[in-house]
Every structure is written in structure tokens, then in C-alpha cells.
Amino acid sequence: MWGPPLSFSPTTTTTSSHGTIYRDEYDGGVAHTRLTVHTAGKLKVAATNRSLSMGFAVTRTSRSLVAPSSPTTPAGETLPLSSLDRVPGLRHLVLSLHVFDGAAADRKGSPARVVREALGNALVDYYPFAGRFVETEGGEVRVACTGEGAWFVEATAACGLEEVRHLDHPMAIPKEELLPEPAPDVSPLDMPLMMQVTEFSCGGFVVGLISVHTIADGLGAGQFINAVADYARGLPKPRVSPVWARDLVPDPPRMPAPPPKLELLDLRGHTVDFSPDYIANTKADFFASTGQRCSAFDVCVAKTWQSRTRALLLSGAGSFTADSPVHVCFFANTRHLMLAGAGAGFYGNCFYPVTVTCGSGEVAAGEVVDVVRAVRDAKARLAGDVARWAVGGFAQDPYELRFTYDSLFVSDWTRLGFLEADYGWGAPTHVVPFSYHPFMAVAVIGAPPAPKVGPRVMTMCVEEAHLPEFRDQMNAFASAAGK
Question: Which pTM value belongs to this model?
Fold first, then answer.
């Protein structure tokens, strides 16, 4: 689960030694995809597009397709996708911004030109990214290895990154200005990758990425971006060799099911930074209580789920009572379970939705360590659940998700490899994901801009009536750090 842009206006920001609390009001409360598909235009456009936002001008100076730098094999072949790649819900765009201050190296030259050349080299190894999605007569999605290339936009910004706080929350430049406009004559959902590199006056730059989840999961996309970065730094080949091998992913029989009902939710956003001290203290409490270890991810999931559940109960959510079940779902990497030892280099979708279901009263009334235990118990069942799914052992497909208000979906962006991608100017100081959808309550775990440390939890998961209580619950968690 990686989504459309949001617009918001900040109200207040509170900072302490324990964490930073951001109080946001999102315009309309719904995430909207505002990508315009051009229906006319040449393959390479030399036009200039200038936009002014809050006094900071962004000018797009070049748009073109970047093809593989040398012939690829198998040229012209159509590649089948795995059963997971073809999950209908994955045919969506994943948007992100990657901020580089350029201070870690004395490298000269244009970052946009360096990244463009490196992209062409990486597309030789990862040639499906240079193709197009097509459908067979039976409606099955495949990748046509056309070699046409990825869409690449060069741009400049009339300011330094310091002036826009390295795109820290709230962003001073709308994300639409830093993400690539779609290529002409091609649906964005048919092009695996689009990229924009915006150079700032300070020497820093921002890489804006739009990819289609169908071709790669988060780890796979991170692997590809690191391959581009490897070439940009002058390596003769990527450190990780790509593996297609979509046929290794199990393809169990599936029961026919109607498409999920997507009810639009009027969601509001809230963002909190948790300090490493609080995370460490909670992990220590869990160890003292259970004799087992847990991760920062477990703590973030548990507290966010608990805060949201308390908000729904205390604020009143229709017929929502202490007996009502609540669900939290996150996505576990399963390369070690599904690929029979061939997981190294695999960049397709290879994950399993881990769902935890408890009574809302149990989640709301328990200690954080109790909720962490429920999360850990579900993770412990992963191997067995995957094995059962692989032989068709579930009456209901676990990949057919429930998009209802009683369900929270969590996405973790901290271990995908994006924070390590170095194009020769150092690792990014900030990665900004946009994994939000108007039909699902979402929490994204990321990181604040360097040198800040600790997890940042970015949410779009409650409606207006439940926002004040959700804020109070999450803010109390941040403020309790170290106590």
C-alpha cells in the first residue's frame, strides 16, 4: 500500500524533548488524485511550465522518455505477472518525494542529468520498468517489454531547501509541483514509472516518484531506486541483481468474489513524531512483561490502533460499542516464505496482509504492551497463514481486504531502502510518502527530516467527529515519552 496527494492548512505545532505533535486540517478531509492525463503531445517536449506556490517558483524545463541505454532482452516479449501482482487493488499509483540537500559530497554537475543517465542504465537491468502494462483478451494484466522507457521530467526551484524546511510537514511547496506530470498519450496506470528531478538553488534536489504498485512492492521499488543510485555513483552494475521470477509466487485457487465496496470516508489527518526514548521505554516494558522483544513498528501500530479505537468509543461512532470488533492490517514481507530461497533480488509483490482483530473494549482499555502482544501474536502466525493460503486453505481470500471504518491499515516506509539511496550527493535527508486513499483509514510510519530521529506516524484515519479525541490520545503518548 503505497497514494494520492493531500492538501492541508496547518493550525499549530508543538515540540518537546519527547516528540513533535502536528495538528492538521486537511482540505475536505479526502485525498484526491489530481493527475491530468494529456491527450496530445510529442514524445519529447521542450516546453517550460512555471508554477508559483507561496512565493517559490517551480519551473519544468524538460520532459522526455528515458529508454534503456542499450538493447534489452527479451525485447518485445510480454511477461506474465504473479498472482499477487494481479491483485486488483494494487493497480494504483504510489507517490513519494525524496529530498537531498547535496551537502554530503563535493560532486559537481546537474543532479537531473546524472539521475537521467543512471535511469537509462538501470532500465537495462530492470527492463520491465521501461515497458507498458497491457491486458490480454481474458483481462489478465501483463507487462509488454516495449523498451519505450520511463517518463522523466527536469525542473528547477527558485529557492533553497532551507527556505522550504526540506519539505518538512507542512510542506511549503505543493507536492503536485514536485511530482512529474503524466506523459502524453499514455495512461499513468499503463506506465510503470515516472520521475521528476527538481534542482534547488542551494545545490540540493528533490526526486519525485510515481510508480504503479503492480510491478513492485515497497522493497522492490526501493531496490530499483538503489540500482539507479548505484549507476549514478559510477558503479559498473547494481549491487543487487534483479530477479523477475514471478512464477515462483504461489497461485492458489481463488473463490469468485464481488469487488470490494469502496465507501468514501471523510477523513482528517494528524501527524506525530515519537522520540526514540519513548519507543525504547515501551519496548523495555514489553520485555519486562513478556520476556520477549518487540520492534518500534509494533509499538507504533499498537498505540495508533489503540488511540483510534479509544477515539471511536469515546466520541461515539454510530453503533460502535465496546463489543464491536476492530481490525488493524499491515503488510509483511514474505520473500523468505514464498520464493524457495530465491528471494534475493526479487522485486515483485511478495507480501501477506496480517490482520489483527480484537474487541474494541479490549484494545481501548488495555495497556500499550497488551496491544503490542496482540500485534506480535498475529505476526507469529505469519508462516502458518502463508502456507495455508498457498494451498488454498482459506475459504475467504486474505487479500480481499475490508475497507470499512472499523479497519485501520498501516504502511511502514522506514525499511524499504529509500532512506539509503545515494546518487552521489549523499543519502536523502527526508522521504515523504503519500499512501492515502479516501476509502481506507491509513497510518504511515516514516521518519522526520534529518537530523531528527525516531519514527513519524502520519495518519489519515478518523473523521471530524473523532479527530479531537484521537489527537489527545496520540499527543498524550508523545508527551508521555521518558516519563
Answer: 0.88
